[in-house]
Design goal:
alpha/beta; binds ligand C2E; binds magnesium ion; Diguanylate cyclase/phosphodiesterase
């Protein structure tokens, strides 16, 4: 009895694994065709200047209109794209789409693009970037590249060389999701970033907890010692805004100022920016 029960459980477990593996394969298969089928699109979320609360740029965020599953967010497919290598063509598509969108704006606001550590470590990254900038006509100083710390844990010399070449082209590099994961002071000191984006999970706890608030203020102070402007992401409430007024990061982003939405150039009636 005990034996057959055990076998039964094992079978159920294996069946579940099978289903999971099958779903993963299916996702990877669908992903491989997503670019060609035009199923990917970008939404744009504004970034505001803290003093004026006017938009100074937009962050491009990837979405996938899946044929049967509806619109998927990055959390549903980026990991699979990274594992399967699909992230490379997808990342190139994202960059070109975002740059050509921003190049069409009447006002020269910045465009921030997220880049996967997998793509960041590709040897021909710099050539790809200069090719896409030339093709879309976007001024390099309007492009901000958002990378996370996982991109730094590889061949240090290669990372430094890539960062240096991108910055020499005029592209700015932002360290995204700071304050979670392995965030380390040494990374800020050793790698030449242009801006620091503090993770929204950090800000999420700020109202309730005076310790988090003090930590948050310390990060901003530390960044200012390093001459690094800070952007606070995930600003959702007036309460958070009031706190940020005191600590004063250079820029802010969050649902309070605007959700990710259709490309500014396609919105009607055309607002000031497009
Ligand atoms: P991220 O770059 O840190 O982007 C911020 C995420 O927080 C976005 O989620 C955005 O929609 C969400 N967000 C913004 N303001 C608020 C707020 O006030 N409250 C809350 N609760 N959330 C807010 P999204 O679009 O689902 O993207 C998640 C992550 O996926 C991004 O984090 C980024 O790491 C990655 N990602 C997005 N687009 C791309 C892309 O084109 N390429 C790559 N490689 N990764 C991407
Ligand atoms: Mg980002
Ligand atoms: Mg972030
Ligand atoms: Mg994030």
């Amino acid at each position: 009895r005990a034996k057959s029960g055990g076998r039964g459980r094992a079978c159920t477990f294996e069946a579940a694994m099978d289903i999971e593996l099958h779903a993963k394969r299916q996702l990877e298969h669908d992903l491989r065709h997503a670019v060609a089928k035009g199923e990917l699109f970008l939404v744009y979320q504004r970034i505001v200047d803290t003093s004026s609360q006017e938009p100074c740029g937009y962050e491009a965020l990837l979405r996938w209109r899946h044929a049967s599953r509806g619109v998927l967010a990055p959390a549903d497919f980026i990991a699979a794209a990274e594992e399967s290598g699909c992230i490379i063509p997808i990342g190139i598509w994202v960059l070109e789409e975002a740059c050509s969108e921003a190049a069409s704006w009447r006002t020269p606001l910045t465009i921030a693009v997220n880049i996967s550590p997998v793509q960041f470590l590709m040897p021909n990254l710099v050539e790809q970037f200069s090719h896409i900038l030339a093709k879309t006509g976007l001024q390099p100083d309007r492009l901000e590249l958002e990378i996370t710390e996982t991109a730094l844990f590889h061949d240090r010399a290669a990372v430094l060389s890539t960062l240096g070449q991108l910055r020499a082209m005029g592209i700015r590099v932002v360290l995204d999701d700071f304050g979670t994961g392995y965030s380390s002071l040494a990374n800020l000191r050793d790698f030449p970033f242009d801006k620091l984006k503090i993770d929204r999970r950090f800000l999420a706890g700020i109202g309730a907890d005076p310790t988090i608030r003090a930590l948050f203020e310390n990060v901003i102070e530390m960044a200012s010692t390093l001459n690094l402007p800070v952007i606070a992401e995930g600003v959702e409430t007036q309460e958070q805004l009031a706190i940020l007024h005191a600590s004063h990061p250079a820029q802010m982003q969050g649902f309070l100022f605007g959700k990710p939405e259709a490309a500014p150039s396609s919105r009607a009636p055309l607002k000031a920016i497009a």
